[in-house]
Amino acid sequence: MPRVMFHAAAGExxxxxxxxxxxxxxxxxxxxxxxxxxxxxxxxxxACRVRIEDGLPHCSPxxxxxxxxxxxxxxxxxxCQARFxxxxxxxxxxxxxxxxxxxxxxxxxxxPGYPV
Length: 116
Ligand code: FES
Known about the structure:
It contains 2 helices and 7 strands; from the N terminus they run βββαβαβββ. With 116 residues, it is an alpha+beta fold. The protein has a single domain (3-90), classed as Roll (Ubiquitin-like (UB roll)). The strands form 2 sheets. A 5-stranded mixed sheet has the order 2-1-7-4-5, covered by helices on one side. Strands 3-6 form a two-stranded antiparallel ribbon. Strand 1 and strand 2 form a beta hairpin. The longest helix has 8 residues, at 24-31. The N and C termini lie far apart (34 Å). It binds FE2/S2 (inorganic) cluster. Residues 37-39, 41, 43-48, 78, 80 line the site of FE2/S2 (inorganic) cluster.
């Protein structure tokens, strides 16, 4: 099983193992790391935005849904969408302000009430 490490804003990083092809958000829950999420993992809120600090080649390709809620930086991903097959290190970023999104896809939430 691949190793995953979550860097926190304060304190020691949390790490553990997760099954190959696990979503980053699921891995966070497995190791007790906090990654915000507000849309049930439907790629609509952007709250789960993370930066892959190490191991980007081990991650699935960035989807159109992810591009809509992140910058053009390939290391910025949605934890609810990105999967990984090898060791990665991650830092939670939180949602990107709408004016900083790269406009690669729809940015209007499809479900009213979710923060953007
Ligand atoms: S949990 Fe909402 S975009 Fe990932």
